[in-house]
């Protein structure tokens, strides 16, 4: 639990002063109790995500570097010394254009490049690179975030020991090329629906990943968070496995 407190202390101390300070990016959260019903096991899942403005040539345009890391920690597996089962690393560069007032409801338009990998040995290695476009829209308490991407192709592996070839040639089958996040805030509560690979709904078998999240504002920049995930792509190591997971924890702002 000491490690959990350290992680939260770091996230809460991130500055919001200058435009060029480190800022929180994607949701920063920790779920000390994350139950995988398929494997009947409990683990700790946490995500740390930061961004930094690199260059701002004009008022409504900025170039950013972002970094996100999602870790799956088998804290309760004392027999095996509580190992980290998986960590997904996600650096990216993106151009953010502020379009508030220019298009009805739209706030930001982003063009980016990102890498995602798990840093594991050859047989468990997973990685891919993609270019993406992301659009943000809001009206009152309702917000929407749509992201579409194209994977940057990699060559096939020459053999199973080839470290440079494609680790996961079928990853688009399970992740698709799009994701949508909808959220609605009412008083101290917020409900969010995340959907990925919606295009697979038109195929014989659906590989949609969906997550429902409920946030309750506890004050002082912290929320109680409840999550339910069902589908594919919860982590890179399990990108082609269907998972059902229930989680409870905290999110910081």
Give descriptors for this structure.
about 250 residues; twelve-stranded antiparallel β-barrel
Question: Would you kindly provide a written description of the structure presented here, covering whatever features stand out?
Answer:
By secondary structure, the protein is mainly β. The chain has one domain (2-252): Phospholipase A1 (Outer membrane phospholipase (ompla), Chain C), CATH 2.40.230. Helix content is 6%, strand content 55%. It has two helices and 13 strands. It has helices spanning 2-12, 171-175; strands at 23-24, 28-36, 41-58, 61-73, 84-98, 106-117, 127-139, 142-151, 178-186, 189-196, 209-219, 222-231, 243-252. The protein has a twelve-stranded antiparallel β-barrel with strand order 2-3-4-5-6-7-8-9-10-11-12-13. A hairpin with a 4-residue loop joins strand 2 (28-36) and strand 3. It is globular.
Quick description:
The chain has about 250 residues and is mainly beta. The chain contains 2 helices and 13 strands, in the order H-E-E-E-E-E-E-E-E-H-E-E-E-E-E.
**What is the name of the CATH superfamily?**
Phospholipase A1
Helix content: under 10%
Beta strand %: over 45%
- Largest sheet strand order: 2-3-4-5-6-7-8-9-10-11-12-13
Given the helix and strand composition, which structural class is it? mainly beta
The count of β-strands is 13
Q: What is the chain-wise order of helices and strands?
A: HEEEEEEEEHEEEEE
The CATH class assignment is Mainly Beta
Major sheet? 12 strands, antiparallel, barrel
CATH topology: Outer membrane phospholipase (ompla), Chain C
Q: List low-confidence stretches.
A: none
Choose one word for the global shape. globular
Q: Roughly how many Å is the radius of gyration? A: 19 Å
CATH architecture: Beta Barrel
Number of domains: 1
The tally of helices reads: 2
Amino-to-carboxy terminus distance: 21 Å
